[in-house]
Structures are given as C-alpha cells and as structure tokens.
Amino acid sequence: MSAAAAPATAVPVAKPFSFLRGFRLIPRVETYPAVLAFAQTIAGKIALLGLFGLGLYYATYLHYLHNPRWIVQICFLVLMTALPHHRRPLLTVFTLLWALGTWWKWTDHPLLIHVLVVLVLAASLFRLAIRFQHLSFGRRPVASLLAGFAVTVLLASYLPKGSLLRTISWDFLTVAGAYLWCIAYSLLDISSKRRDPFARQLGTYQPAWGSTNTPFPKGAAYLRQIEAQNPEQLATAQLKGLKLLAWSLILDLFLMHVVTPFFHGYLGIPFYEYLFHLSVQRKSFPWYIGCESLVVDFLERMIDFSIFGHRIVAVCRMAGFMALRNTYRPLSSRTIAEFWNRYYFYFKELLVDFFFYPTFTRYFKQRGRWRLFAATFAAACLGNVYFHFFRDLGYIEDLGFWQALAGFQAYIFYTIVLAAGIGISQMRQTNVEQLSWIRRRLLAPLGVIAFFCILRVFDYTFQRYPIQESFRFLGHLFDLVS
After folding, report:
1. Which of 110-114, 249-253, 368-372 has the lowest mean pLDDT?
2. Per-residue pLDDT at 193
C-alpha cells in the first residue's frame, strides 16, 4: 500500500509594503505598561502637562500668534487632572469663563450681554422642553429650534438698515448662531434617561478646548460615554492627547516647510483661489495648471483641517475625555461615504443626529434602500445647506435673506451632488475585500479623491460666486474653455 499523500502546505504570499504594516512615526506609548503606570503618578501627570503645555505654546507661536489662549487651556487642564471627580463641574466653570471673558475678547466681540441672553434663553428652552413634552415643542424641540432660528433670521433681514433694532438683532443672532448646535444637542439629550442637568449641558457650549459652530465633540450625551472613569483610563486618554498634539505639530511643519514651498515655490503651481479669480475675470490659463492647482488645494486643505481638528481633540483628551479624531486617514477611503465620515467626523455626526436619523426613523419605512438614500439626502444636502447658510449670517445681513439664498446656488448644487454620491456609494455596498490590492488600495481611493477635487469647484461658502462661474472653471479643467 502506498502511504497517503501529505496535505500540501500553503505558502504565504508576501503582500506589497507589508514591512511597513507595523511602522508608526509616533509609537503607541499608551500600550506600554511602564509608561502607562508612570502617567498615573504625580510625577507622570506633571510631565504630561508640562510636555503638553510646551506643545500648545509652540503650536501658538509657530504662526507668530501672540495669543494667551494656551495659558488658559493649560490652567484648565491642570485643574481637570488634579480634581478628576469634579471634572464636569469644572468644565462648566471654565466654559463660562471662556464665554464671558477670553473667548469673545479674542474674537473681537465685546457684546457679552448677548452671550448671557443666549445662555439664559438656552436654559429656558431646555426646561420648557422637559416640562411640556406633550406639546409640539416638547415632542420636536430640535426642529422647533431650527425653524424658529430660520424665521428669526428672515424677519431680521427686513428690519430697516442703519436702525438700532437691526444692529442689536444681528449682534444677537451672530452670538446665537455660534451656540445654535450646542443648544440643539442639549435638546436632543432631553429624551435620554440619563440626561444631564442644564448646568452640565452648559459645559459643552463652546468649551475651553475649542470648537466651531460644529460642537467638538458633540454634546453632553457623548461626553458621558467617553469620560475617563478611573486613573488608568485618564492616563490613556492623556497619552493619546499628547500624541495627537505632537502629530498636529508634525503636520503643521510638513505643510509649512515642505508642501507649500515645494508646490507653490519650487514647482510654481498657483493657488486655487487665484486661478478661480482669473477665471471670473475671463483670463485664460492652461487646463493642466488648473488641475494641478485643484489637487494641491485638496491636499493642503486636508492637512490644514487635520491640524485644526487634532489640536481641539488633543486638549479634550487631556481633559479626560477619550474623543475620537475629527479627521482620520481620509486618503485611505475607498468609497465616497467613507471619505465623508473620515474627513470631518463631528460635522458628519451633527448632520446624522439632526437630519439623518429623524428622516430614517419617520419616513419611507416601506421603501427599503430608498429609505437610506432619502435620509442621506436629508443630511448631506438639506442639513448641509441649512448649516452653512445660517452659519455665514454676514451675507444675509448685507444682501438680504432671498438674495443671499440666491447667491448660495453653487453650494446648493455641491450638496446635491455630494448627497447623491454618498447615497449611491452606500447603496452599492461593494465588498472591497474581494477586490484586488491595486483596486482596493490605489484605484478606489484615487477615484474618491478625484470626485471630491472636482466637487471642490462648487464648494464656496465664504466667498460667493454665481454657479455659472463654477461651471466655467470646471470647463477650464477639461480644456473646454480658453
């Protein structure tokens, strides 16, 4: 009898660039037991705060900004680290100090009375929504808030120009707009069984670690989920915060001393805004210069946006909250939906919380995948337009409500295409793991980048151009316009 043949042993196939799989520019020090144990000691906490303070100082003066904000933030972090059991009350105290003093002073907005009025109004809305949950406002507090704000802006645009009432109204609306989505997150938390009282909700209103009109990181409900519960979790959060600040500094230096000098200096590629202005003035330029400028602008904006988000989240983590990054490896995105999630996470979460979920849970319940598409369209298009239109109130004040809305046509088109792209991307649900390495790691991300680069032509909010100017510039890119 012949012996049974031994089963063939599978020969492992080496994957391209597998030797780089474990490489990290900044090591995962939070996983080192000795480092984690040291970070829980008094000496370790002092060392972490000292290094973080130096990082904040360098980040501030890297751009020659003589801004004492970093001093306030490090004082805030010292108290938050020393008194972890009083973290949430301290957050509220520092947020109030930030709002009533330093924050508005640094933004050249001395109208503190408007801040107080907005905060009192927010507290009133919070209590009314709890007390009258059986009424329309109590059942739909966020929708009522957003509709009320829009109607108020519309009415304020009809006030006589130059009148005292118009000046007071628009100053108030500017302050209210900065807190609008913070208030919305508080109202959203009302339905939670573990909702925080308003005093703690207030700690999320433009907190001391920094924010924009988009709350970082979301509201009080999210803070309850990510707050460190013991010394080990606090040490882990602070080590990750220090790493994230270091990474933001590396990106900042890379942008300032490598990307910008190389592309705009050595290669001489013009800035995108300059070329768009040439197109508006009907001046010609080679089509490939426009394409190069658009790609470089995409890269620079992505790096700059990462730096901005990393520093806010880094301070939040040092305060004892393990917040997710705002921007996380967007270039590795294989679908449009994935990129949208990775590029501006907290803005995406805002649109999902206030527009996607309400649409998904209430409408088109029998429509299958079209229900998902409709909810995505409500968030990426309607919610996106609402957020940016009412964020830039200066245009509405100067031009009037309807003229400002007409001037927003290019961005409205941008959101329609974006929502369609995300919706189709979600409905396709391609199993990317079954694709070849080249398609999965190279072609798919390049296709996503190309989509967002072209869509950038219509992504104008701070400076308004008619939509035909965007199409004209797009024609330059395809050599259809001289």
Report:
1. 110-114
2. 86
243/217 same-domain check: no
410 shares its domain with 459: yes
Dig out the tokens for 120 from the structure.
């009192």
**pLDDT value at position 466?**
85
Query: What 3-state class would DSSP assign to 456?
Result: helix
Strand partners, 321: 227
Residues in Cβ contact with 200 at an 8 Å cutoff, skipping those fewer than 6 apart: 88, 89, 91, 92, 220
Evaluate whether residue 260 is within a structural domain: yes
pTM of the model: 0.89
Residue 321 DSSP SS3: strand
Six-digit token pair at 116?
Answer: 């107080």
Average pLDDT over all residues of the chain? 88
No. of helices (H) and no. of strands (E), the chain? 26, 0
Confidence of residue 16 (pLDDT cuts 50, 70, 90): low
Q: What distance separates the 2 farthest-apart alpha carbons in the chain?
A: 107
Range of the domain at 165: 96-227
Give Cα 262 distance to the centre of its chain.
Answer: 28
How confident is the model over 379-394, as pLDDT tens digits?
A: 999 999 999 999 989 8
The residue that leads in pLDDT, 26 or 240, is: 240
Answer yes or no: do 329 and 456 share one domain.
Answer: yes
The angle, 0 to 180 degrees and rounded to 10, between the axes of the packed helices 287-318 and 444-455 is 100
- Both 170 and 319 in one domain: the answer is no
Q: Are 148 and 181 members of one domain? A: yes
Place of tokens 């189709």: 424
pLDDT at 22: 63
In a domain, 50, yes or no: no
Contact 69, 102 (CB under 8 A): yes
Number of domains the chain contains: 2
Shared domain check, 219 and 271: no
